[in-house]
Each structure stands twice: as structure tokens, then as C-alpha cells.
Amino acid sequence: MEIAQRKKFDFTKLQVILRNYGIILAFSLLFLILAFSSPAFLTYRNLHNIIDQSAEVGIVACAMTLAIISGNFDLSVGAIFAFSGCIAAIIAAKGYVGFALLAGIVSGLILGIMNGLIITKFRANSFIVTLATGYIIRGLAMILTGGRLIIVNDPVFSILGQSSFLGIKIPIFILIIWISITWILLGRTTFGRAVYAIGGNPEAARLSGINVDRTKIIIFGINGISAALAGLITVSRISQGQADIGSLVDLQAISRVVIGGTSIAGGEGTIWRTVFGVLLMRLMTNGFNILNVSPFYQRVLGACKTMLP
């Protein structure tokens, strides 16, 4: 009897370890496999590119972690991504680069707060609301641009997405800063504790004195900012705004968050596991390319990896 109880305890402990640190094990295993499979993998240039190419989705995924932990989803981030980028490109094309970047961030914040207000004031489901507002926002982006590409020739505008500092691309610095901000917000503040409480039991959180509506509005505001920031980086990389970019950013971000171990039921998750989820998916894509895996197989494996637990 005692031996059976001990085995059961060990099995439960193993489940907890795998749930909390399984993403690290998966990342480490894949990293080692690729390191031994190709000499090109461990080069500075390749590792730098992996992180650089993770910046946009990583920024959105960090904010999405807050939403999912609170028991909500934001399917409008892809549309905000495009809309804010288009706003910035239109203004930058007229020669006002600094104002363009500010306008892009502010537009994302406003759209995010609007999502939060609709969800809280009408007690509506976040999945349905953000799916609808996403269509509306992307439609506004199409109207704004007339369906055309907005070309920005000002070299200052390209600094955000294309320039480097100390040999490291600017988007990597932005990603690190955003990870740090969201990590501190979630793990070291009263706001973060409120996010977990709302995800665990919103009614109990309300009865304990937490302003649930205000917390949700802030969460969606942060998601709006993250989508806008990621959109600005992308538009700066390619020096043009277009209404159809970022169409899969929301789903990519959600899949990275879930793969990182955040519960879609809410109340559980961490930023660092989301970061590993983002890097794991980018590592897989990078490995496919290095090992010259056929694009047809990549599509099949890509669909499978999004369904990983």
C-alpha cells in the first residue's frame, strides 16, 4: 500500500514537472538535434535571425498570455497589427516619421481599449467580440489605404525594423524590453495577481474587491499596444504599409502561448514559458529550412505543430 502511494506521488510529481518545464525539455532536445544535424545551425548569424524573426509574434504572444490567463482571447490583434502599420506608413510617407510611430501605437491602444469596453460593458464573449472587431478594423485599414501599398521612402522610418545596435537588430531589443515589461506586470504587480484571479474565478475575484472590468480593459489595451508595436516593426522592415499583413498573427500568438503551457481555461501560465513556445516554433521552421525539408512536408508538419499540447 505504502509503495503504491509513493509511486502515485512520483507520477503526479512527474506530471507537474512536465507541465511546468516540458517546453524547456522540448526546446533543448530540438536545439541539440539541429546543432548536430547541421553546422550552419550554431552560427551567430542563424541564431540571431531566429530571435529577430521571432520578434513580432513574440511581442504579440506576451500580451496574449495576459489575455488567455484572464480567461479571454483577442482575435483582433492581426487587424490592429495591419491598421496601426497603415496609419504609421501613411503619416511617415508625408515626412512625419516620429509622429507616425506615435500615431501607430496610440491607434493600437485605442482599438484595444475599445475591445475591452465592449466586452465589459455588454458582458460579451471576448472571442466573438474580437472576431467581429477584427473584421471591422481590417476593413477600415482597406478603406484607409484604398487597397494600395503605402510606400515609405524615408530611411529614418526603416530604422525600427532594419537597423542594428552593437551587431544586434533593433527588433530584438524591443522584444527583450517587451518581455521584461509583461513579465514584471504579470509576476510582480497587483495587476498581475488580479489577472490570475480573474482567470481562476471572475466572480470570486469581483467579490474579493478586484475591479474585474478595469483589469480586462487594461489587458485588451496592452494587447492593442503589442499588436501596434509588432505592426510598426513589420512595416518598418519592408518600408511599406498594407491592409492584408498580419492575417495569421493572432492565431500564431495563441498557439505559441498554449504550446508554452498557458491554460486556455484561464488562471495559469507564465511569460517565460510563452517565450520558449515562440522560440520553439521558430526553431522548428528554421530547422526545416536548414535541413532542406520539402515545403509540402513543412505545411503538413506546420499544421501538426500547432496542435501540440
Q: At CATH's second level, what is the architecture?
A: Orthogonal Bundle
Strand content: under 5%
Multimeric organization:
single chain
How many strands, what sense, and barrel or not for the largest sheet? 2 strands, antiparallel
Provide mean pLDDT, rounded.
91
Question: Which CATH class?
Answer: Mainly Alpha
Q: What number of domains?
A: 1
Query: What letter string, H or E per element, gives the SSE order?
Result: HHHHHHEHEEHHHHEHHH
What is the CATH topology classification name?
A: ABC transporter involved in vitamin B12 uptake, BtuC
> Which word captures the global form?
globular
Uncertain segments: none
Give the N-to-C terminal Cα separation: 33 Å
Radius of gyration: 20 Å
What's the total count of β strands?
4
Structural class designation: mainly alpha
Helix content: over 70%
Q: What is the count of DSSP helices, taking H or I runs of 4+ residues?
A: 14
Structural write-up:
The protein has 309 residues and is an all-alpha fold. Helices cover 75% and strands 3% of the residues. It has one domain (43-305): ABC transporter involved in vitamin B12 uptake, BtuC (Orthogonal Bundle). The chain contains 14 helices and 4 strands. Strand 2 (164-165) and strand 3 form a beta hairpin. Helix 3 packs antiparallel against helix 13, helix 4 (77-93) packs antiparallel against helix 5 and helix 5 packs antiparallel against helix 6 (126-145). The mean pLDDT is 91.
